[in-house]
Amino acid sequence: MKAHMNVPIFIPHLGCPHNCAFCSQKSVTNVQAAPSPESVAFSIKKQLATRGDRIAEIAFFGGSFTGIPKAKQAAYLESVQPFLKSGEAESLRISTRPDYVDKETVAFLKAYGVKTVELGAQSMCDRVLRAANRGHTAADTVAACAHILSGGLRLGLQMMTGLPASTPADEMETARQFVALGASDARIYPTVVFFDTDLYSQFLSGEYTPPSMEETVERAAACLAVLEEGGVQVIRIGLQETETLGGCAAAGAYHPAMGEMVRARLWRNRLETAANTLGGRELTVFCPERLTSLVLGHKRENFLYITEKYGIKLQLRRGEVPALSDGEKWVAL
Fold first, then answer.
1. Pairing state of beta strands 192-194 and 249-252?
2. How, if at all, do strands 114-122 and 91-96 pair?
3. Phi, psi of 285 (to 5 degrees)
4. Parallel, antiparallel, or unpaired for β 4-10 and 55-61?
């Protein structure tokens, strides 16, 4: 199977009239102004020069694409067409708001070769959406998903953890609804407090307290488990690191290795379930080579945690499960 390459085009805050409590697109993308359609083609060509034999997907991120005036949407999409027609790029993805999608919008995007529409749903709880000043409802997300799928496009969904008024139960329910809505892929973004946002003001006043790093990792891992078990591919956890992003974060659980931390926690939780279920004093863990670092955890912290908490010695073996002696406790991951 060939590797994939993402070709991102950032259009920060373009097409969105709302001022979400957490939003600081210019900080997140490190892009200060939306590109012109002419510069988009130049950027794509430059990025594709490093493609090799990878399969490329061009993606418009950072704004609400379908909220942009139709003529400018068309100009952006036209700039991508030569790369789709030549086969240099295989697919096209756009991200937008749930309340900016209807049947006609989907038909328009499909005509330009868009294959995936990604919605910034953030939460499926209206109480949380109101607290974050999202300006749309969970019902808007449900309707948008139906339009996207009935129009023959793939559905991507984004969720956030740790938003004001959000609980772990709210977030797991959001993940469950993403599965039920038919998402092909999803992103999990733990909330980061950026300077010069409404959320920063709430943080300074004490109205909002972000979850700790430990709680953030645990909450995201719980959502990851729900999504993966439901067949939804989680393609990103945490914000993409840029040269300036760390300096823009005033509070919250920002970490450039958030994805690895959350995935490692998921495996620790699975090991803990096995330890509780199987018992005994020793447990042999079989896992594929590619999962070794996540199963072990940073500096073997997952194995150390299980040993210290349960008194169970874990032994890691890579590859297929061989013949085992009678009574040997084991789990295959």
1. antiparallel
2. parallel
3. -110, 120
4. parallel
Using the structure block, give the residue that is written with the tokens 């000043």. 133
The closest alpha carbon to 158, from 116, 197, 200, 193, belongs to 116
C-alpha 312 chain-centroid distance:
34
Q: Give the Cβ contact number of residue 166 at 10 Å.
A: 24
Q: How far apart are CA 56 and CA 116, in angstroms?
A: 13
Longest dimension (CA), the chain: 70
pLDDT digits (tens, 9 = 90+) for 118-152: 999 999 999 999 999 999 999 999 999 999 999 99
* Cα 126 to Cα 36, 116, 145, distances in angstroms: 36, 25, 17
Residue labelled with tokens 């969970």: 138
Does this model's pTM top 0.90? My answer is yes
Which parts of the chain are beta strand (E)?
4-10, 55-61, 91-96, 114-122, 154-161, 185-190, 192-194, 233-237, 249-252, 282-287, 313-318, 330-332
Pairing of strands 91-96, 55-61: parallel
Alpha-carbon span 322 to 237, nearest angstrom: 34
Q: Which residues of 194-204 are buried (b: 16+ CB within 10 A; e: fewer)?
A: beebbbbebbe
Q: What's the rounded mean pLDDT across residues 142-167?
A: 98
Residue type, 211: P
Residue 174 burial class via C-beta count within 10 angstroms: exposed 0-12, middle 13-18, buried 19 and up = buried
Amino acid 233 reads Q
Q: Which two tokens stand for residue 97?
A: 């708001």
Amino acid in position 66? T
